[in-house]
Fold each of these.
Amino acid sequence: MKTRLVGNLLYGQSGGPTSVINSSSYGLFKQAFKHKDIIKEIFVMHYGFEGLLKEDLILIKNEPNLKKLINTPGAIFGSNRFKINFSKDTETLEKIYNVLKKI
């Protein structure tokens, strides 16, 4: 018997905004809404990992309005170039873990 993972989806943008970053997020959200049996809520990290660390998350609830993402320039949810040193930055990793447990 297969075990199904059920929970929330978390999305974040990082790096430079490209012409397709919002369209890509639209595609992800559109597919996620088709799987409400396993994806309970969709969250976006506002400004990537910086938003996650500040618990600045956007709850995506309204599928019909998401189509506007296809033609919206830039990175609508914000982006960053935050880097984590996985071998030294245990405080940041612990903070990320604790925020993820909340959502």
Amino acid sequence: MSYALIRQAILEKKAIHATYSGLHREMCPHVIGLKNGKPQTLCYQYGGQSSSRLIQPDGSKENWRCIEIAKLSSVRIVETDTWHTAPDHSRPQTCVDKVDVEVRF
């Protein structure tokens, strides 16, 4: 179910809120697919919590997160949040090696 919601969010350029490894995350997914056979998504995190590093001001390239979909729970699309990304959104990514869908700009 999480995979389908994230996929929908990408196609519609919508934000999601979810719990990842026990922490609340506010993100905009950009790519979804498989990495080494496991479902993953590349997201731009603009709010919530992070265990790896502090969330930087909007637009920072430091806010990209590679997310294992199996570790996500309580995923929901948020209609009221605006779309967030960074100027380097089109840079080559290594989070997903078999892309299902990705945001088109």
